[in-house]
Write a structure and sequence with these properties.
Number of helices: 0
Shape: elongated
Oligomer: single chain
Structural class: mainly beta
CATH topology: Jelly Rolls
Amino acid sequence: MAFIAGAGNPTGGSNPSGTGTSVSYLRYEKKTLAYAYSGTITVSDATEPATALRFTTGNEAIDAKVMVQWLQAAADADDAYISIELNGEQIGGSYIAADFGGTNVVGPENWIPIIIPPFSTLHVFFTMISGGGSVDLGVTLTGEAYA
């Protein structure tokens, strides 16, 4: 089962770690894994969304999980929102509260399950909704690809 070229980074391609806004694949004989790591996304403007992931799939569908990560401690009032859009329509989102005295812990309960159909565009982005500072957030996407 072939994947359409350009639909993501092949292992060992120009960005083998997968850091950035695109999706990467690990191909095995009986399974293909999909993954994406946004890296650090600094969110500081309530009117301008900060893109974490944005890619279009080829002929594969991806059964994935998305997780938000705090990449720094934040002040109690520095809250953000994650939006997940598929083909321009919001399919998920979550309020991300900075609390616990600036110690932000994200656990497995924060994984958001999604199915990404073939030939679809996924856009994951953050918007700052309160606070006067900035926060460094990240997104990890992992899943299995099916062609």
